[in-house]
Amino acid sequence: MAFKNSLHGKINQSMNIALSYECPKCEQDAQVDAAQMNQLIKEGSISCVSCKQDLSLDENGTDVLNKRHNEIKSIQNHQLLVSSCLFGTTLLHFSGFIPLAGLIIGYAIAAFLYMFSSPKQFEDLDLTFHEPAVNSLFKNQSIVYKD
């Protein structure tokens, strides 16, 4: 049972697509999941999960986000290829166009494509954001009362 749990942990760790970041305002560590990545790509900013501060990407953060987005897109293409091979082979077999040996060969090709064409592990990447802007109207100003 321990082997199964350790293997499951390695699989989850290797296929983790989330990006980590440290909020510049509250300095809490958090992760950006796939849905938040889409929001970052569209809008260029997200809200911090702990302090709800709006965070906008700097140039380094944009490069990291684009790199992870391209990695995900390449995996999607591989997964589509494997799924198409499995589905097409099954459809051809049950339609009567290929015999059982053809089905086995098609499944073997799909297994080969799955094992050798998709990356096994994402590298850990950290997003970086601009420092939160301080409202210049209230910065270093004090209220002076006259008598």
From TrEMBL:
Source organism per UniProt: Vibrio azureus NBRC 104587
Chain ranges passing through the membrane: 96-116
Keywords: Membrane, Transmembrane, Transmembrane helix
Protein name: Uncharacterized protein
